[in-house]
Recover the amino acids of this structure.
């Protein structure tokens, strides 16, 4: 008896429907050829623009060759999930309040990694129920994956001049995840670019980290400086950081396509502990125990407590001069961490204290 092969075109349509039912905003399917993106990545790494992110080069070409990362991979199902929930305090308002701390909008609520990976697993289970056993692996920033290039090839958006993925109908405020699979599904049309002559993202960057269209010097990027960098922030970049204490959204905030940004449907992404605009002095007063308790299950944990204090010290140095700010800084002037003490001293000097 011959068993009929699955109708892969119908299965692809079902997968996209199931993805939406599981809470993803959209899904698309791509092949595994990333030759030009591999060359772009190797040039970027060769120029040292990744800074201290050694993991970007650690896995060789597995990042740009899905079948080497997960043998047997023939297709990649890419999904996206919107992350800015309704009611979040206006980003420009927070950036304009020098006494408040700005946290990148993606990091205000629950960490998305486990949530999305769990739902990708559920998507795989639905596929298995339809076709039987098949090879797959789910990724959400959990392995060397060129997620933006794969999502572009799956039709979910194009990579903008700021190197962030942009969707014509939804802007850029969304997370990405992938399901590597050995199923020979039909692939979607890659998205075409629509940045045109616009250069708002290049011009707005406080630290001039976007050194050319589609080329980011991570060593100058505020997201890198406040999250990935574990030592001292270069002194010439501290003032431009302003009140950004975890990440930065400026290049997305000015992007014209974000007038189409969609609000998140996931309640777990709602801001916790008023972090969409809490005062710097209050945040600087958190003990390590408070920091760990209040950031449990959140992306902010990635900075670590020492990095958290370092970042807020810089923001306090950029804040309007006040007795309250100087008192908060002096209270940390003897902190056990040399990195924290250095940035507190810099901030006190800026405060005239």
């Amino acid at each position: 008896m011959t068993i009929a092969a699955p109708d892969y075109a119908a299965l692809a349509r079902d997968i996209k429907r199931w993805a939406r039912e599981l809470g993803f905003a959209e899904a698309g399917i791509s092949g595994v050829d990333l030759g030009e993106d591999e060359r772009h990545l190797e040039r970027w790494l060769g120029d040292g623009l990744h800074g201290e992110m050694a993991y970007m080069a650690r896995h060789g070409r597995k990042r740009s060759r899905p079948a080497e990362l997960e043998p047997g991979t023939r297709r990649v199902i890419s999904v996206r999930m919107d992350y800015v929930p309704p009611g979040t305090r206006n980003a420009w308002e927070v950036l304009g309040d020098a006494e408040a701390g700005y946290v990148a909008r993606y990091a205000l609520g629950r960490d998305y990694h486990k949530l999305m990976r769990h739902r990708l697993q559920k998507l795989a289970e639905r596929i298995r129920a339809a076709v039987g056993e098949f090879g797959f692996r789910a990724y959400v920033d959990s392995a060397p994956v060129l997620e933006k290039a794969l999502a572009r090839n799956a039709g979910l958006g194009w990579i903008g001049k700021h190197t962030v993925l942009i969707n014509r109908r939804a802007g850029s405020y969304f997370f990405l995840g992938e399901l590597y699979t050995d199923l020979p599904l039909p692939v979607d049309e890659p998205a075409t670019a629509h940045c045109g002559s616009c250069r708002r993202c290049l011009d707005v960057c406080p630290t001039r980290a976007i050194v050319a269209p589609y080329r980011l010097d991570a060593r100058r990027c505020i997201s890198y400086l406040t999250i990935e960098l574990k030592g001292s922030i270069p002194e010439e970049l501290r003032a431009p950081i302003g009140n950004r204490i975890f990440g930065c959204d400026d290049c997305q905030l000015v992007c014209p396509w974000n007038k189409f940004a969609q609000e998140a449907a996931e309640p777990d992404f709602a801001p916790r502990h008023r972090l969409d605009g809490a005062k710097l002095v209050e945040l600087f007063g958190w003990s390590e125990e408070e920091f760990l308790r209040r950031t449990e299950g959140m992306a902010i944990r990635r900075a670590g407590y020492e990095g958290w204090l370092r970042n807020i010290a810089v923001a306090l140095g950029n804040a309007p001069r006040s007795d309250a700010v100087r008192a908060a800084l002096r209270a940390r002037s003897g902190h056990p961490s040399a990195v924290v003490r250095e940035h507190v001293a810099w901030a006190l000097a800026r405060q005239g204290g």
Q: What stands out?
A: The two ends are 85 Å apart (CA to CA). Residues 200-259+271-350 form one domain. The mean pLDDT is 96. Residues 41 and 64 are 8 Å apart (CA to CA).
